[in-house]
Write a structure and sequence with these properties.
elongated, mainly alpha, 4 helices, de novo design (two linked rop proteins)
Length: about 120
């Protein structure tokens, strides 16, 4: 299946799902600097996939997918910190953590398909 638009990319869809969860779960977080950082990291996943796709070259797409993968790791790191700081419940952490692992694997597969 040929990808026509970035919205068709599974990793982008999952990135959006993770971003919406992050915004929802941290909505009432009073640590505004933490909240801002994790929101920006999660948004960066989907936005880098979109930007890379719109560049229309595999070389640039690959580069942006690596950036998205890095943002996935940053989001996961922030989730771990959020759990330690008791900003989130274990249940929410597990859902978002597992989603971030899935996104990372999807991005790895996508990058390999461009080689």
């Amino acid at each position: 299946m040929k990808i026509e638009k970035f919205e068709d990319i599974i990793a982008w869809k999952k990135g959006k799902e993770l971003t919406l969860l992050v915004y929802s779960v941290f909505k009432t977080c009073k640590d505004f600097s933490f909240k801002n950082q994790i929101e920006r990291a999660s948004v960066s996943i989907m936005n880098n996939i979109a930007e890379g796709f719109e560049r229309r070259t595999n070389k640039e797409l690959r580069n942006f997918l690596f950036i998205a993968k890095g943002s996935t790791g940053e989001t996961r790191s922030m989730l771990d910190l959020g759990l330690e700081l008791k900003y989130i419940h274990e249940k929410d952490f597990k859902i978002m953590y597992n989603l971030s692992i899935e996104i990372s694997k999807l991005l790895s597969g996508f990058i390999k398909s461009l080689d």
